[in-house]
Structure formats: C-alpha cells, structure tokens
Amino acid sequence: MLDRLPDLVNGNAALVRRGRHLSTTFLVEVGPQAWLVHVRDGRIAGVEQGPFRMASWSFALRGTAEGWAKFWQPVPPPYYQDLFGLLRQNELRFEGDLLPLWANMLYVKGVMGMLRGSRGAS
C-alpha cells in the first residue's frame, strides 16, 4: 500500500523541496498494518512494512483502516480531506516526538495525500 510512496513523492519536485529539511523515520499505521517511512532530505529513502519488533521512529500517524480509506478516496467525504479532519473524527492520532511533525506538517500532509486515488491506497 505505502510501497508506492518513494516513486510518488520523489517524482514531485515541489514536495521534495518542501521537505528538504526533514530527515527522519516515521510510523504509519492503517488499522493493524504498520509501515516505517524513511525520509532523507525530503526524499522517501524507503518504506518498510511491519510487523515490527522495537522499531525506531520519531513520530507516528496511527489511524483506522476505515478513516484512511476515506482519506485516500479521489474525492474524500467531508471531514476526511485532511489529517486534521481524521484527527477530529477520532480516526487518527499523533504520537511520539511531535516537533518534527509540526515543523513539517505541510510536507507530511503532502506525502500522505500522494496516495489519494492511487490503486495502492485501497
């Protein structure tokens, strides 16, 4: 599912430029499935699919499968167009060191939004 992120993000020069100061690893959970997303200077260096035992990450986006499915629709329903909408609907929670997340929120929103409408997001 998130395996397509390197191609989608790294091919978007504006998004890579937006995240050029971010080098970290973050966790994305879609229901019971987990992925580690490795970011180096705004480029997706790799994506690993879990399960993980004692994985190291700076922040986590833990969401329900139903919430992410709505978020990734080509035209999401109201309240599901944005990560904050998912948060407000109790479909998502942020965990860990939130400083890199908040400092790069537009980049992270862009990265997660790249899967919108793609075949790999269902």
Structure description:
This is SCP2 sterol-binding domain-containing protein. By secondary structure, the chain is of the alpha+beta class. The protein has one domain: SCP2 sterol-binding domain (Nonspecific Lipid-transfer Protein, Chain A), CATH 3.30.1050.10. Helix content is 33%, strand content 26%. The chain has helices at residues 5-10, 13-18, 65-71, 83-88, 98-103, 105-113; strands spanning 24-30, 33-40, 43-49, 59-63, 92-96. A five-stranded mixed beta sheet has the order 3-2-1-4-5. A hairpin with a 2-residue loop joins β2 (33-40) and β3 (43-49). It is globular, with a radius of gyration of 13 Å. It starts with a helix and ends in a 9-residue tail after the last helix. The mean pLDDT is 94.
Offer a quick outline of the entry:
The protein is α+β, with helices and mostly antiparallel strands and about 120 residues long.
Please tell me how large the radius of gyration is: 13 Å
How much of the polypeptide forms β-strand, as a percent range?
A: 25-35%
**Helix/strand/pairing class, anyone?**
alpha+beta
The biggest sheet amounts to: 5 strands, mixed
Arrangement of strands in the largest sheet: 3-2-1-4-5
Q: What is the helix content?
A: 25-40%
Q: What is the CATH superfamily?
A: SCP2 sterol-binding domain
**Number of distinct helices:** 6
- Give the SSE string: HHEEEEHHEHH
Q: Judging from the principal axes of the Cα atoms, what is the shape?
A: globular
At the first level of CATH, what is the class? Alpha Beta
Which fold name corresponds to the CATH topology? Answer: Nonspecific Lipid-transfer Protein, Chain A
What's the β-strand tally? 5
Low-pLDDT sequence parts = none
Distance between the termini: 7 Å
| Structural domain count | 1
Overall pLDDT level: 94
- Can you name the CATH architecture? 2-Layer Sandwich
